[in-house]
Write a structure and sequence with these properties.
This protein has 134 residues and is of the alpha+beta class. It has three helices and five strands, in the order αααβββββ. α1 runs antiparallel to α2 and α2 runs antiparallel to α3. Keywords: Membrane, Transmembrane, Transmembrane helix. This is NfeD-like C-terminal domain-containing protein.
Length: 134
Amino acid sequence: MYIWLILTVIFLILEGYTTALISIWFALAAGILTLTSGYIPDIMKQFYFFVALSFVFIIVTRPLSKKLLSKRKEKIESRIIGQTVEIKKVISSGEYETYLDGKHWKAKCDRELHIGDKARVLRIQGIKLILEKE
């Protein structure tokens, strides 16, 4: 029983450190096993139940979660693209840090920028803003 509780916590912590849904399904399965492991005394049967539950959660909820996350991404993109940002920090040649929409962002630009320069957001690539100098 405690092993499943520990695994639930570990999977939730891992999920908190990622930007995508990676381990939430395993956390859900381990959480269910925490509650039901008293009824399944054999650890191997518990493990098989964990694997089966994880598989079901992934198959059933992954398409729904992808759909919801893509809508969220579209909202963020529509709000951010076209905005003007100020360069707060030069990380390396072509890489910068800026602040927009209440968050710190890493940014890339093919032209050299300096602290205080203004740039316009062209698009979002992964977790970085792609900028063009104004």
